Amino acid sequence: MTEDQDALDLAADWADISQGLRKDLGQQLHSQWIKPIQLGSFCKDTGTLDLFLPTEFSANWVADRFADRLSLAWKIARPDVRHVRISVLPGRRQMPELRLGGGNGTARRPANDAAPQGRDGPLPGSAADDFGAIGPGSINGPIGLDPSLTFTTFVTGTANVLACNAAQRMAAVETPQFSPLYLKAATGQGKTHLLHAIGHAYLAAHPRARIFYCSAERFMVEFVQALRQNQMIEFKARLRGFDLLLVDDIQFIIGKASAQEELLYTIDALLAEGKRLIFAADRAPQALDGVEQRLLSRLSMGLVADIQPADIDLRRSILEHRLARFTPANVPADVIEFLARTINRNVRELVGGLNKLIAYAQLTGQAVSLQLAEEQLTDILSANRRRITIDEIQRTVCQFYRVDRTEMASKRRARAVVRPRQVAMYLAKVLTPRSYPEIGRKFGGRDHSTVIHAVRLIEDLRTRDADMDGDVRSLLRQLES
Description:
By secondary structure, this protein is an alpha/beta fold. Among the domains are: 94 residues, GMP Synthetase, Chain A, domain 3, CATH 3.30.300.180; 149 residues, 3-Layer(aba) Sandwich (Rossmann fold), CATH 3.40.50.300; 91 residues, DnaA protein, C-terminal DNA-binding domain (Chromosomal Replication Initiator Protein Dnaa, Chain: A). α17 packs across α18. It is globular and about 85 Å long.
């Protein structure tokens, strides 16, 4: 009877949590990822609650994007839930071909991958694996660092090289010239990857070191629990006993006066002992509203290193590095180029798009192609695309090649007219969500087969003709700027 009541209580709590997530995430995201979750067993001894999803891909996706949110929601609803473990429903077939080399796939994989987001390979585990818990006995236990998120797997470019170099200095044997290090980047640009990489490199250089890694939200949860249980002395002693402090998403500590004060005193104590501190946030310290001025000064007293949005070259490199980790996976170069150009908001979405595309192809037995990418990544592509119109493309191409705008719809077959028209058709397919028939109608009512021929021809010419490739690249820069 007690077990039945416990199950009913869990179900009631999950109904409340699910409803709250639906309001936060919106109906579409909730229906696709949260609604399929099934409650598993709850172990009172370990405080671990199992949540199951029907496929490995959906479990990976939810674990990477929503693990922290689910864990925090359950902790608020039921304080006895200390860990949330997200996995595939027992009995469901695993997909070994989606596994990635170079890691055991047991922890969350943040943004700059070569690091796997899928938030955005197998991305699974539990929210409890994402941080080094402050609870009793945890100092000597695992600290939750993802083994695949190292400096070796961090792809660098002009957008992130300063932050990467600064992170490597913080992990080196030599005492760094600055502390703390504050990594500032928008969502999905790689700051969490660098936190994990610092932890791995520091442990390699200092094998007996004690490391604390968590998000600011988790810091808040542990702080409140210690406060409620009258364990603040133990909490402070454990926290200040670490050699390296890594705190992610520090913006979430906004407005929590008591927690801010404790963090301030912890920073002062660790800095006085020569310990190393690294913080990460989506905004600069001065932009953290509701944070006490003394804490702001501590956060910005070392080095504030920006990670800028990845440019097209870095996005290509990340996709190629990521692709090398899939076995097997045949993704044509034009698909990589298409994803790199189109998914430009953040690296997490970029890698997540590639993950989803490859997973869909493998699960359905289809070949990866531009058409498949456009069909399966509609939401991601539409969110990233600037609304470039076919009219805008035609106008830009005509100015570039110095032809009259009316030639886009004319029947003339002169080479000086045909080639610009074909380039415009190609760009219309690459830069807009329009179908072949729709594009044909915008070019004087031409048949869809004419558009397909133009697209394939320009694709082929770009591989053989450096001048044509240069023209297309120049036009892409103009249209995307």
